[in-house]
Amino acid sequence: MKILVTGTAGFIGAALTKRLLDRGDEVIGIDNVNDYYDVNLKLARLAQFQEHPGYTDIRADLADRETLLAAFAKHEPQRVVNLAAQAGVRYSLENPHAYIDANIVGFMNILEGCRQHDVEHLVYASSSSVYGANTAMPFSVHQNVDHPLSLYAASKKANELMAHTYSHLYGLPTTGLRFFTVYGPWGRPDMALFMFTKSIFAGEPIEVFNHGKHQRDFTYIDDIVEGVIRTLDKVTEPNPDWSGDIPDPATSSAPWRVYNIGNSRPVELLRYIEVLEECIGKRVEKKMLPMQPGDVPATWADVQALTDDVGYRPSTPVEEGVARFVEWYRDYYKV
After folding, report:
1. Percentage of the chain with pLDDT > 70?
2. Closest CA to 85 of 226, 186, 179
3. What's the pTM?
4. Quick one: which of 78, 157, 193, 319 has the fewest CB in 10 Å?
5. Residue 70, pLDDT score
6. Contact in structure between 181 and 301 (CB atoms under 8 Å)
7. How far is the C-alpha of 301 from the C-alpha of 268, rounded, in Å?
8. Residue-averaged pLDDT of the chain
9. Dihedral class, residue 268 (left if φ above 0, else alpha if ψ from -120 to 50, else beta)
10. What's the DSSP call for residue 217?
């Protein structure tokens, strides 16, 4: 297939692009390669496949409507995976406009491109952050998610609502994937695993929020990519049993779905750090701090719907995934 992927210089986008090219798909990659974190890491990710004959590289911002729509018109992708976004909960407290530009305006342009060019299926990144103030565990896609705790979370919830509108009005099949704490080789430097690893190798203390009592549904990158591809390959259809009298938040009478995509095995942050220390072979000094604004104490994904519909089965325990990350980190940074 010919697939347009946004965010190809990003952590998940690069891993997904490699897999799609390996199986013979043609990929049109869009990324603005911004400096939210180390540009060299983004360029190194792109270098893995930039010369592949099936890859087309476009440097553009999703908020640039003219350039984005021109890419749709020129390349006519059959399917689209939108992973480009301004990520990060804490950053959204300091730079709220970045989230509106990338996650709202940019997503609007993606929807219009899909509508105007009869795209068969749009798969887009949502986030576990949409669960916000919810405390019933595990988080289920059938729960109401109307109480976000950060602008980042609100922007991802908005994406789900915007996608539903286009599915309803224009019959555009859309699927939102609520990612749960993705980690692994080539990961993001602004996430805990990367920052902790850097500090341990440098012999510096680490900041541990919520006194290490956070629980996160850490999900290994290969499991995530497998789930994204399975979802992309199965075009969303309307739920014939959906009722406006008892509206199911996860499905619709339109071709629209949202799924959790996680490991479904929450791990306490202190255990995660312990595994990292074992993999590196060094202990680290921990600065215990209270919970940060916008954060949630725990995440745990109920992935049954994704398992039922596409056979998604995450299989990588944190011990194995963290070891692979450390191996990559040593090699990439020569430490």
Report:
1. 100
2. 179
3. 0.96
4. 319
5. 98
6. no
7. 14
8. 96
9. beta
10. -
Instruction: Determine which helix (DSSP H) or strand (DSSP E) holds 70, and give its type and residue range.
Output: helix 65-75
- Asked whether the predicted pLDDT for residue 217 surpasses 80, the reply is yes
Got the DSSP string for 119-164? -SEEEEEEEGGGGTT--SSSB-TTS-----SSHHHHHHHHHHHHHH
Residue 264 CA to residue 281 CA, distance in Å, equals 28
At 91 the pLDDT is 80
What pLDDT sits at residue 93? Answer: 82
Specify the 3-state DSSP secondary structure of 199: helix
Angle at which helix 11-22 crosses helix 221-233, to 10 degrees, equals 60
CA distance 45 to 51: 12
Torsion-angle region of 94 (φ positive above 0: left; ψ -120 to 50: alpha; else: beta): alpha
Cα distances from 159 to residues 46, 107, 301, 303, in angstroms, run 26, 7, 19, 20
**Token duo for residue 253:** 């009478």
pLDDT digits (tens, 9 = 90+) for 53-106: 999 999 999 999 999 999 999 999 999 999 999 887 778 888 899 999 999 999
Dmax of the chain from CA atoms?
A: 59
CA-nearest of 159, 191, 195, 190 to 177 is: 159
Per annotation, catalytic residue among 152, 220, 259, 312: 152
> What number of residues does the chain have?
335
| Spatial strand order in the sheet of 79-82 | 55-59, 26-31, 2-6, 79-82, 121-127, 174-179, 256-261
The one-character DSSP state at 186 is: T
d(CA 183, CA 318): 9
Q: 91-95 long-range contacts, Cβ below 8 Å, gap at least 24?
A: 91/36, 91/152, 91/190, 92/150, 92/151, 92/152, 92/155, 92/294, 93/150, 93/151, 93/293, 93/294
Cβ contacts of residue 94 below 8 Å, gap of 6+? none
* DSSP E strand stretches across 180-255: 182-183, 206-208, 215-216, 219-220
Q: Decide if 166 is catalytic.
A: no
